[in-house]
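User: Okay, second chain of the day. Same drill as before: sequence in, structure tokens out.
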Amino acid sequence: MKTCLEIGSVRLRPIEESDLRTLYVWRNESEFLKLFSPRRTVISYEKFVAEHKRDMERERHLQFIVEIVGRNKVLGTIYSYNLNLVDGHVFMGGYMPKDTRGLGYGAIACMLYISYLFEFFPLHKIYFEALGYNKFSLPLLQNFGFLEEGRFRAHRFYDGGRHDLIRTAVYR
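Assistant: Same drill. Structure tokens below.
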């Protein structure tokens, strides 16, 4: 798939081979491992490439790089996974490094991606899961109309304590 999605100054474009180094760096950031990933350990580049390939083959539906139009400045990534066309739902996730958060680009990318998914796939709803201590994603999701659908109590052990995993959804 070679389609780019754009609105204003934000572009979502398919991942290219040259993006793997950036995705690798993000994958191993402590902030990513803490807030956005079920994985917990830092891995080598070679293991990351194999992990990413497996993810793309098994569960990943689509993945885009978020960038500023005209500057080709990479801001983050957004993706969907576990697409279920029979029941009409998909999960989505994404990551914006700390230095690109709070500028509005992530919100624009999220809205663009949600619109794209609902426009081009027969989906009834889109899920997004966030950990209870993720004070960045949860308010953003609420602003986009995501509603809490489930709470997996004490789901994650992190920093010496147990934390909830909150599943939210937005409907067509």
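DSSP finds five helices and eight strands in the chain.

User: Thanks, on to the next one.
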